[in-house]
Amino acid sequence: EPQTYRVTVDIPKRARQLMVERLDPPCPYSAYREALTIGLAPGGVVRAWVKSTCSESIEILRAQAEVEPKGPSQGKTDGKYALPLEPASKAYIEKHGIPYGSW
């Protein structure tokens, strides 16, 4: 979906409560939920979850983002989704290709 969205969300206190609550039974890797994941779906739907390596994700919020009228990069890229490459970077890629293996 070629759209840029904006939204501000308040992480609910319930998220912190879930993250400081010990897992029962504890996970071999962590006794707590240590991850907060925020997702943006087509249409600007925002959802967030807390989870641990061993437990199910628990949804903690849903929100609706709005379309950013300036587009990507706050309007600095004429509607394109990337800034132009620096001359040195462009020259390197033209000579050596994109270094996918280094990622």
Automatic annotation (TrEMBL):
Pfam families, A to Z = DUF2931 (PF11153)
Q: Where on the tree of life does the source sit, at the highest rank? A: Bacteria
Spell out the InterPro entries in the cross-references: DUF2931
Q: Protein name, please? A: DUF2931 family protein
